[in-house]
Amino acid sequence: MMLAMSDASPLRSGTGRRPRALSGAQPTADSYHLGNYFGAFRQWVALQDEFEAFYFIPDLHAITVDYDPALLRERTYIAAAQMLASGVDPARSALFVQSHVPEHAQLAWILNGITGFGEAGRMTQFKDKSAKNGSDNASVGLFTYPILMAADILIYQADKVPVGEDQRQHVELTRNLAQRFNHRFGPTFTVPEAHIVKATAKIYDLQDPTSKMSGSNASHAGVVDLTDTPKQVAKKVRSAVTDSGTEIVYDLAAKPGIANLLSIYSALTGREIAEIVAEYEGQQYGHLKVALGDLLAEFVGTFGDRTRELLDDRAELDRILAAGAERAREVAAPTLELVYERSGFVRPV
Ligand code: ATP
Ligand code: MG
């Protein structure tokens, strides 16, 4: 496939194929949490019919912070099981482990060459995460993480990237890198768009309703993990920090605690926030907490059963992941080949 600089990319979107969706979620905790579920997994599942979908477990990203190899291995299986339990359907979507598709890392190296040092330094996730542990302890991998993420997306010529609000800046960087490469070396990449569903783009910590629910929080008292028992979850919701006052209204600025509970309630039941507020008119915070606690307890109960069943059959998980990686490589390999050619690399004969 020899292509002149001006040739249109044969791989980009708009060439008759179905649009593609791509996303991942790091296996850096013993379980995903409710923020990952609503902010990411639910959107992944919703896109599987309309889009050719690629969903993966970013183990290469997970090693950019201090980690334990045995734990990473186990968490990778848990991640796969929880993605499947969320409704990712391997018959429709490619579900795979990032390191099974070496093209991600190969493309990341190329993109490193067109990313500015200052540009990478402006990424707020790097600033936040390196500040947490003291910037001297931050790895170079953590710094270049967004460039690997750009490679994850661009290698599939993805059109849509379903993520939570915290990833918006990284998708923006990805768009810039795609445009820059296309401009310098000829049309190569599809320029992707973030797919961020406002209502669930940011689920907040139950103990600190002004910061995002996050797997890497030191305390999980305000984090609803998908492996929590129904009892633990009901308790976490009952002890959620709420605001002064008693009236149940949705006001993100003045009453972030109650607003967060209402968002979760709405996401879980599919009911409008206004309708829920009307139902609780005249009642106290406690009523809402007990009701939501019960609903969420039931949800994690069912979710946990399904996850455990999937985890009991590792051979089946391995088969699903191998098939997903095979499908992914069919798309990733031609993109990398085109990139190498555009970059001026002599290809082996
Ligand atoms: P970490 O704290 O280690 O960054 P995380 O909890 O943010 O972990 P990620 O693997 O970074 O998890 O994110 C996986 C996906 O879940 C991303 O699409 C991210 O935007 C989304 N997500 C994470 N936290 C939330 C949240 N609180 N609300 C909505 N979406 C979220
Ligand atoms: Mg994150």
Order of helices and strands: EHEHHEHHHHEHEHHHHH
Provide the structure class.
mainly alpha
Percent strand equals 5-15%
Overall mean pLDDT: 94
> What is the count of helical runs?
13
Low-confidence stretches: none
EC number: 6.1.1.2
Subcellular location: Cytoplasm
GO molecular function: ligase activity
Main location: cytoplasm
Q: What descriptors fit this protein?
A:
349 residues, mainly alpha, 3-stranded parallel beta sheet, two-stranded parallel ribbon, 13 helices, 5 strands, 52% helix, binds adenosine-5'-triphosphate, binds magnesium ion
How would you summarize what this structure contains?
This protein is mainly alpha-helical. It contains 13 helices and 5 strands. α3 crosses α12 (285-311), α4 crosses α7 (140-154) and α4 runs parallel beside α13.
Written account of the structure:
Belongs to the class-I aminoacyl-tRNA synthetase family. It comes from Aeromicrobium alkaliterrae. Catalyzes the attachment of tryptophan to tRNA(Trp). With 349 residues, this protein is mainly α. 52% of the residues lie in helices and 6% in strands. Strands 1-2-3 form a three-stranded parallel beta sheet. A two-stranded parallel ribbon has the order 4-5. Strand 1, helix 1 and strand 2 form a beta-alpha-beta unit. Helix 4 crosses helix 7. The chain is globular, with a radius of gyration of 21 Å. Bound molecules: adenosine-5'-triphosphate and magnesium ion. Adenosine-5'-triphosphate binds next to helix 1.
